[in-house]
């Protein structure tokens, strides 16, 4: 953050605006602590204590490392409000990393005011785990980006880490989805002799995302977590796991690439700076466009994994629907890299070129600037590809002439959602608290924008 300061009077309530992290309890595989915002920040928090569940005991992990997951979620909100954060102890290396990440976010977003981090101790823990280890971890979903990172680093035999709490929520309604994701990732790992790690956290539900969007949506292309918080947040969640499993390196796959000028919460100048005692993080494959990542996957398919599955669907996580924009886009990308999408988890209709063109022309999907870049990347490859059917030829010809800028929804969400955000932004906290149940009922609308 802007500065590291020793807390002079820990029993004294911090001044407003501020957030205090309570005692961090680690019992077995469970991490929990309270988060207490001052009055002006309460609207950005739901009142839930922070929780994270790991699949390995974390009781022996030092408190300074255990503080990292909650700080990684809370600090960006505090920076946006110009608030200080108070915690009993924190790893000194991570505290330094927070200052560097805050500086990056401040360079991207005008609303990032920064703040100080107060602790009774900035610790430099001695770790038996993590010291001298060459083991690596990879945040993994089975999509194009994380699969490409696996292909690039497969000789390191990385532990595949999957996190529940963002695209798969901790709501009981998502239990079956999470079970299917675990099964799919475990099957991928078993076939390759890899270890897996699964983390569950309420990192998002402890934050009030509708209110964060109400205040800051006008500054970001997408949602709060995707635009601001997820690089630091997801990597920070891995800190106790990395210490317990002796992971010295963590890879997170790039979404964008060099030349894509977008504000995004996971970037080289964020992820490469996230570190703590024993572990460093790396933003991987940023030098490759998405189509070039598919090329890397295609090389691996042809030499080692002819039926490699991919899962990229925006609608469901257990398989690919073949009808959403991301399924269509990935299927076209696979075809341009010389692969048959049906061999890799996509139904045949995912290459229905007439449906793709109609959907793009009719605005059937809310597309942001990142999708525009990805379709432009595909268009660049179309120049080098001979069509294999009249339908493909017609689509390629249309795409080469299409106004991709016109496909982008500048608002990022329907008018009704923007009206709700404007209302919440101008609602006093006391009134907002009384109407919260009504607002909470609309939260499902925002899940895709988180």
Give the helix/strand layout.
Elements: E1 3-6, E2 18-21, E3 25-27, E4 30-33, E5 35-37, E6 50-53, H1 63-66, H2 68-81, E7 84-91, H3 92-108, E8 116-123, E9 135-139, H4 144-153, E10 159-164, H5 175-192, E11 196-201, H6 209-216, H7 224-237, H8 239-245, E12 247-253, H9 268-271, E13 275-276, E14 279-284, H10 290-303, H11 325-336, H12 353-362, H13 369-382, H14 390-401, H15 415-425, H16 429-441
Parallel strand pairs: 1-8, 2-7, 7-8, 9-10, 9-12, 10-11, 12-14
Antiparallel strand pairs: 2-5, 3-4, 4-6, 6-11, 13-14
Helix pairs in contact: 2-7, 4-10, 6-15, 11-13, 12-14
Shape: globular
Radius of gyration: 22 Å
Low-confidence stretches: 412-450
Strand content: 15-25%
- Based on secondary structure, the structural category is alpha/beta
Task: Specify the number of helices.
Answer: 16
The strand order across the widest sheet is 3-4-6-11-10-9-12-14-13
Q: Helicity level, as a percent range?
A: 40-55%
Give me the count of strands: 14
Order of helices and strands: EEEEEEHHEHEEHEHEHHHEHEEHHHHHHH
- Give the biggest beta sheet: 9 strands, mixed
Organism: Saliphagus infecundisoli
Protein name: 7-cyano-7-deazaguanine synthase
